[in-house]
Amino acid sequence: MISIKNVNKSFGNHHVLTDINLEVPKSNVVALIGPSGAGKSTLIRTINALEEIDTGEIIVDGISIHDKKTDINKARTNIGFVFQSFNLYPFLSALENVTIAPMKVKGLSKAEAEKRGKELLTSLGLGDKFDAYPGRLSGGQQQRVAIARALAMDPQVMLFDEPTSALDPEMVKEVLDAIRQLANDGMTMVVVTHEMGFAKEICDQIVFMAEGKIVEVAPPEKFFTNPDSKRAQDFLSVVLNH
Q: Locate the ABC transporter domain: which residues (predicted)?
């Protein structure tokens, strides 16, 4: 479903991604974890070309994302992206935030888009918030609206860039529960996260990054109990003991 081959990316003289190779099969959930500055957010942003790459290739559902011939706007309709900071339109209601792209990009009628939008918001526990504006919603509620907005395009892949990092601790669970439900439904997902318990519970593979490289890829039961690399061992000794 997602194939990343020999990807390199630099910002000036700073090599932020070095020889990245990764395969994400359909319906798998992959967590990108590692210290700050490891390149996790840059990597996930290259999957839908929010960041360009210098060399290599990224293929999503058979489409070469960085090929100059690819219609990236069309390709992105198949790739849902949820940001750290919600990025909702403040002047639109929750339902309007969810329905605007399906109507403008996919040509759905207002009735069709609203029916789907209400179904999604209700499934995410927001059935009473259709008319609420983002400023009237908690951080956790805003992030769930953002998830509904991404799902409204019926993507084949969902990307999450630290979706709980901007939330108060008590709001984290409701967002993680929403992502957990997507995993249970078989959605292909890549998640940048600092939530180790969540990664251990729902992910098929843990990808540990440091200094712009993939250091280790392992199933969660192996990674969290017996990582191979010294770098991963040091990382876990810090994050699991605090």
A: 2-236
